[in-house]
Design goal:
Keywords: Membrane, Signal, Transmembrane, Transmembrane helix. With about 220 residues, the protein is α+β, with helices and mostly antiparallel strands. The protein has one domain. Helices cover about 25% and strands about 25% of the residues. The protein has helices at about 1-20, 165-170, 195-220, and strands at about 35, 60-65, 80, 85-95, 100-105, 115, 120-125, 130-135, 145-155, 195. The radius of gyration is 21 Å and the shape is globular.
């Protein structure tokens, strides 16, 4: 019986460790890099060669990397956007193609919105004048290698009378990859879903209950 109990606790410990590794570590806002906008969109670099340049800013995008998920030093990149008054147009593209998530970690956890797509195009109201966004991989997107991604934030002009109309008229086809050809990639606006602590706590409770029942079952053998 003692041997069975020992094995059961080893199993419980292993499950909890694996669960903790699966949870995304949230970056601290002070560790976030500042978004450096190209304010005049008419001056965007539209040369495809800019995609392969170390400091290239194709169509105003910046480049970052989502680390290989099993890397002990893996991080979730964060970017802080300042001067957000009305609406912000968010666009993200990965290379190679992978499901990437973006989340505003400035607002309360219970009301945050998580957007996950292979290409993200979302124009949303500014939650505050200074917003920090965190990027992460969804599912198995980063379990084979690191994933590069291009991101861009464009703020609506505070003088715009109808920022919702401004959002509607934004070009949702402008991704770095679109510079390689004249046929833009069709993209629909991302649907958002609320996330909060309730989801994580529910998953933790279910996992712990399952592990506990497993312990009892093995101990009785």
């Amino acid at each position: 019986m003692m041997r069975g109990l020992h094995l059961a606790f080893v199993l419980l410990f292993t499950i909890l460790v694996l669960y903790s590794k699966d949870c995304e570590a949230q970056c601290a806002p002070e560790d976030a890099k500042a978004w450096d906008p190209v304010r005049n969109e008419s001056t965007y670099d539209r040369d495809p060669a800019s995609i392969n340049q170390p400091d290239g800013r194709p169509l105003g995008y910046q480049l970052d990397t989502l680390d290989y998920i099993n890397d002990a030093n893996a991080r979730s990149p964060c970017v802080t956007v300042t001067g957000c008054i009305n609406y912000v147009d968010i666009m993200v593209e990965t290379d190679p193609l992978a499901r990437i998530c973006i989340e505003d970690i400035t607002t309360d956890a219970a009301t945050r919105e998580l957007i996950c797509q292979e290409r993200i195009s979302s124009c949303v109201p500014c939650p505050s004048e200074e917003v920090t966004y965190q990027f992460s991989c969804q599912g198995s997107s980063c379990d084979q290698s690191a994933v590069n991604f291009w991101f861009r934030f464009v703020l609506s002009d505070p003088a715009v009378l109808d920022p919702e109309l401004w959002c509607f008229n934004r070009n949702t086809d402008e991704y770095p990859s679109s510079l390689y050809n004249n046929v833009p990639v069709p993209v629909t606006r991302a649907k958002t879903m609320p996330t909060g602590r309730g989801t994580s706590l529910g998953a933790t409770f279910s996992l712990t209950l399952c592990a506990f029942l497993t312990v009892i079952f093995i101990a009785r053998q």
